[in-house]
Design a protein that fits this description.
The chain contains nine helices and eight strands. It has helices spanning 8-19, 36-42, 51-57, 91-94, 98-101, 107-114, 129-134, 154-166, 207-215; strands at 2-4, 24-27, 46-48, 60-63, 82-85, 119-122, 146-151, 170-173.
Length: 219
């Protein structure tokens, strides 16, 4: 697993991935020396690298950066790879992006313009990082939670589903990248189903509740 961006969601996913037996290569915009401590905390299955190195190393690569950083995501090493996009658009942080403000594109479709040969899958954009860590459950658990994913490649969605299954979650297929607005910031499936931020343990959410939340989204 390669990670381009190592903020709260990236580090949480890396922790879950290591726990599931995956090797992880972390990167951020400030350089690998700033991630040495994080890699050491995660153990021998984790290492720090440049963004290009992380993109090259990963069989699956997680892009977890501000939308304003999309132009800096290395495109060439992501060609043909399954890429998980966890990113949410926030004008107060990213500045205003006309195609996102007028809803002619989803943020995932915008990312695809910068990494056009990647097999992009939207996932993990709708869950608080503390809930993501605490709600993971083994296969067969009665209180296993579901996460929505969206993408245009069936093979990439299958690979991401397998990864998500390995770290303790089941999946609801939420359609194509054009449909991924249904799990964007402020939609019914974003944050709320898993409980308030004040409850750091969160609450498990089943398949029906996620499907209902996706269906309730308006644009």
């Amino acid at each position: 697993m390669g990670f381009i961006g190592s903020g709260s969601i990236g580090r949480t996913l890396a922790q879950l991935a290591v726990g599931a037996g995956h090797q992880v290569v972390l990167s951020n915009s400030r350089g690998p020396e700033t991630l040495v401590d994080t890699a050491e905390e995660l153990g021998p299955q984790a290492s720090a690298a440049t963004s290009e190195e992380a993109a090259t190393a990963g069989d699956i690569v997680v892009v977890t950066v501000p939308v304003s950083a999309f132009p800096h995501v290395p495109a060439a090493p992501l060609a043909g790879k399954t890429v998980i996009d966890t990113c949410n658009y926030g004008p107060e942080r990213d500045g205003h992006i006309p195609e996102l403000d007028n809803k002619s594109l989803t943020s995932s479709e915008l990312l695809l313009r910068y990494v056009p040969d990647a097999l992009l899958v939207k996932a993990f954009s709708n869950i608080f990082f503390k809930h993501l860590l605490s709600l993971a459950r083994p296969v067969g658990a009665a209180d296993r939670s579901y996460l929505p994913i969206a993408g245009d490649s069936a093979s990439a969605k299958a690979a991401v589903t397998e990864f998500i299954d390995s770290i303790g979650y089941s999946v609801v297929d939420a359609g194509t990248l054009a449909d991924s607005w249904r799990q964007a910031t402020g939609t019914p499936v974003w944050g709320t189903p898993y409980g308030p931020y004040s409850n750091e343990k969160g609450q498990p959410v089943g398949e029906d509740a996620i499907r209902a939340a996706l269906a309730a989204a308006t644009r």
